[in-house]
Write a structure and sequence with these properties.
The protein has about 400 residues and is α+β, with helices and mostly antiparallel strands. It has 10 helices and 8 strands. The relative contact order is 0.11.
Length: about 400
């Protein structure tokens, strides 16, 4: 198979150009909540939506560190676009590491991705269950038939909305001869244009407003037999959600919020250089107080960057000792990026909370880092159990 995208340019200059293009429309999409079509097209043209497609499929095969750099750049421009891209990149990386899509369907996805943005997302949460990382099984089912599967259920927080080209839907298998007390659990890969898919516009959120993280209903959606991919249970027979603990490929989410913190740093600096109070007679950027605030913002960003790339570099070098700490490292990154943006907003007072100032949007967006699994309390409790033996 020939390469489906041009050779990637991941230089700082190329990524900065993408950041700038996304930033041009970020405020507009934040206000409207519409699918960020122009932003997704920018990312697609740069080859970044398919950066993690495996080399065996003709892709660039970007690894976790390259992916983190990409998503930081996208998050700095428009984090809603970055979140849709992050989920897509994770899907391609998963397929590259462990082929599980039906061969024909993945070939179709790659062909489609060559000509237009083709977002993919794992659709997992449900209105009653919440996030599956907290435990429990979905109510969404895949009914086995002689010709394939019939998917029925209601999912929540399905980032990408109607823009999704493919849904990877978390289900319980309903099949003849199956054990009702211990059913098979897995994902069903569903093209986004299948009959029986209905979107419910539930996303009216504080941040990442253009991510279109709506509810979706599957009513009698037909998929072929090989569309179901089982997730094995543990040796003790218990199903454990893969998102309950962080892995290297899950660092794309904190990476995009690092980009939000970088955007906030730039917005703070721009304001400080341009703000000249009459009583002062010079830009507030020249005052020691504002310089110290800028230094504190930079400290928090440096901390997040070092934790993010330091952990991934250790893994690249074959150091496995960091693996048990990845979840708490994600917590530390989240704390640092939130602190960076909050510091900037607090120092500016009312201007930092004005809708005319992009810092207000950056603050709303960065707070969303806390919702990605494993969430802080779960990560800390798991780390505590490990430390205490």
């Amino acid at each position: 198979m020939t390469r489906i995208v041009p050779a990637l340019d991941l230089s700082d200059e190329a990524l900065a150009a993408v950041t700038a293009q996304l930033a041009e429309t970020a405020a507009e999409y934040d206000q409207s909540g519409a699918i960020p079509v122009r932003g997704l097209e920018v990312v697609h043209r740069a080859g970044l939506l398919t950066a993690t497609v495996g080399s065996q499929y003709g892709g660039a095969g970007a690894g976790p560190r390259e992916t983190a750099r990409i998503l930081t750049a996208l998050g700095e421009g428009d984090p809603s676009v970055a979140l849709i891209a992050a989920n897509t990149l994770m899907a391609h990386a998963s397929q590259a590491a462990n082929a599980h899509w039906p061969v024909g369907l993945y070939e179709e996805a790659l062909a489609r991705s060559a000509v237009e943005p083709s977002p993919i997302n794992a659709i997992r949460a449900e209105p009653e269950l919440g996030a599956p990382a907290r435990g429990g099984l979905p109510r969404t089912t895949a009914l086995r038939t002689s010709s394939g599967w019939i998917v029925n259920g209601h999912k929540a927080y399905a980032t990408g909305g109607p823009a999704l080209a493919y849904h990877v839907v978390w289900v319980v298998a309903d099949e003849p001869g199956g054990d009702p007390d211990s059913p098979r659990v897995g994902h069903v890969i569903v093209p986004g244009d299948r009959a029986g898919i209905t979107w419910i516009d539930t996303w009216d959120h504080l941040g990442l407003r253009a991510s279109n993280t709506h509810d979706v209903v599957y009513d009698g959606v037909l998929v072929p037999e090989d569309a179901f991919v089982e997730i094995p249970r543990g040796a003790d027979g218990v199903y454990r959600d893969p998102a309950a603990a962080a892995g290297p490929n899950s660092f794309g989410h904190p990476a995009l919020y690092l980009g939000v913190a970088r955007a906030a740093r730039r917005a703070f600096a721009d304001f400080a250089r341009s703000r000249v109070p009459a009583a002062l007679g010079r830009p507030i950027a020249t005052t020691e107080r504002i310089q110290a605030v800028a230094g504190e913002i930079d400290l928090q960003i440096a901390q997040a960057e070092t934790l993010l790339h330091g952990a991934l570099l250790l893994i690249e070098a074959g150091d496995q000792t960091v693996l048990p700490q990845l979840s708490v490292i994600k917590v530390a990154i989240a704390r640092a990026v939130v602190a960076a943006v909050q510091t900037a907003v607090a120092a500016l007072g009312n201007p930092g909370l004005s809708r005319r100032n992009s810092l207000e949007r950056h603050l709303r967006d960065v707070l969303c880092v806390r919702v990605h699994p494993p969430q802080e309390d779960a990560a800390l409790a798991a780390a505590g159990r490990r430390v205490l033996g």
